[in-house]
Task: structure prediction
Amino acid sequence: MARRDIRLMLMGQPKKGLLERRWVIVTLMAAVLAVGLGLGIGIGMFSASRPSPPQSLALERTIEDHAAGRPLSLPATEDDGPAAVPLVEPPPPAPAPEAETPRESGLLAPPKGAAGTPAWIRYAAPSPKVSGRPMIAVVIDDMGLDKRRSERVTTLRAPLTLAYMTYAEDIDHQTAQAHSRGHELMVHMPMQPMSTSFDAGPEALDVSLPPDELRRRIGWGLSRFQGFVGVNNHMGSRFTADAPGMRVVMEELNRRGLLFLDSVTTDKSVAGEAARRSGVPFAARQIFLDNEQSVHAVRAQLDKLEALSRKYGAAIAIGHPHDTTIEALTAWLPGVESRGFVLVPLTAVVRANTRQ
Result:
């Protein structure tokens, strides 16, 4: 036997490295899979356990981003608000006069016993004859800050309802021009948002303020111009959810015979209940037109507005003086009647619901 073969017989076969042994490789692969599976399950459980942002805060960030110059990114929901947000109570089928009874919710009648005609009726813009057609009211917020775009809005077909910021400059001239063109006027009252990253503006209503200071700020906002029918909230997801603060607001509106339109920046708003208790005429928006600022997106929201108006007999939308919104409304407004609707000021919807 050759010397080499004898040496191999004495020493045995050369040993294999660990990575060359099949059972080691299989074991390592199984371990890697087990670790990966464990990490995936752990990450999933951690993500599920984290609380998601409140829906009202997400909505507020979308609605109020325009005030902070941030891009709007949250996709619009079916009605552009939390599912729990009530819509304006639709006008019921007209009963016989003797069968009419006051309702306990929804839009309310003006203060009883007030001297003279309430301001929300006295300063209401003329409304076309409805004649049984579905009504649409379009409210444009944030008016007066951007004078050029605000002036463009006033050239749109009337009647629109235009809500002017309390701290806009040259507000008397701007509102007088809008009124002369057939539009209805409202005060856009700044109120405290939920997020501290947003600034509602000077003289905003804040839950930390005592009632006397709230009344002073409300009085200041209502003294900025004349001829308005009521108030709606600018931002306000924190303040409109505060019952004591909203009670002060409604007391002041009741005293002046004004209505309140809830912009619905939170599903926790108590504005409707506060209005009911104080006897203040009340409405809530149904559609936001321009969470997404493109002509196509605004037109899609207008289509939703028409569908709601046809279903309930009346619908209220809120938009802003953005170029895309103005362009979409410029194309949409002339065809309202031909599609079977009637464009009305906000007070016409309130009046129909309060049977005034």
Summary: Residues 3-49 form one domain. The CA atoms of residues 190 and 204 lie 5 Å apart. Confidence is low (pLDDT under 50) at residues 1-16, 46-88, 90-114. The first helix runs from residue 3 to 11.
